[in-house]
Amino acid sequence: MGIRVPKEKTIPLFVRLAYLVNRLPRKSRTSRLSLLLDLEWILNRLCHEESYALFSKEDHPCRQATEQFIGRVLPPGAVVLDIGCGSGDLTSVLARSADSVIGIDHDRDCIAVAQENHRLSNVAFLVGEAEECLASVETKFDVVVLSHVLEHLEAPILLLEQVSSRCGFVYLEVPDFEYGPNNEYRRILERPLNFSDVDHLYEFDREELEALLREANLEVLSTSHRLGMLRFWCGTQRLH
After folding, report:
1. Closest CA to 101 of 145, 66, 146
2. pLDDT above 70 covers what percent of the chain?
3. Given pLDDT bands bounded at 50, 70 and 90, which one contains residue 181?
4. By the 8 A CB rule, do 225 and 176 touch?
5. Whole-number Å distance between alpha carbons of 233 and 65
6. What is the tens place of the pLDDT at every residue in 139-155?
7. Which of 35, 215, 225, 235 is most buried, by CB atoms within 10 Å?
């Protein structure tokens, strides 16, 4: 949601001071932009972490955007597998309209938290690896959820290909590398602070992710590019 701002604006003193400091001589424009990009990354990261401390799980804008998108596309009464479920917050949201949900994560501590906080009759939490679960469980899932999973994997295409043969729909969510132009400046200038989390192996742009989905024979049915996230609802070959 955008906003309307007044024609006459008050510029805070600290902004004026920042502009004055930025005018001080430096070796080059490249070094000046590089410093500003690093400062912006640090402040963005701090804002991100503070936002999750300030807003409740139910009220956080990013989580609300995810819930709204999933609410529009998730078939009622579905059998769902939530891969990389963490502490189970999204799993419990899925359970509101799904018939049953399995949440799986390799982190035993996260699963213990999920089991304690989300005691729902139609939800089960498992400790394990997604690939093993997909290979061993006989259930044919209607939906597989990959929320903030692909960016952590050495070979995300392998999981996508395995998932696409086990379900009718796939929901996936990753950070949007192209949420603004500064990440492109970081890429060109080869800045080290060009990731959104320290344990990420990939930062996907939209074209790259869509190409990866096509390679896995997933058809994009609906998308959302809000609040710095890429959200995709995809159909698999099982639909045809």
Report:
1. 145
2. 98
3. very high
4. yes
5. 14
6. 778 999 999 999 999 99
7. 235
What is the maximal distance between C-alpha atoms in the chain? 66
Quick one: how many helices (H) and strands (E) in the chain?
9, 7
**C-alpha–C-alpha distance, residues 81 and 124, integer Å:** 10
CA distance linking residue 31 with residue 47, whole number of Å: 24
Residue written as tokens 């009718």?
168
The amino acid occupying position 55 is F
Contacts of 156 (CB under 8 A, 6+ apart): 150, 202, 212
- Amino acid at the residue 70: I
Backbone φ, ψ for residue 159 (5° rounding) = -70, -40
pLDDT of residue 53: 96
Task: Note the Cα 34 to chain centre separation in Å.
Answer: 26
pTM, two decimal places: 0.91
3-state SS class at 154: coil
SS3 220: strand
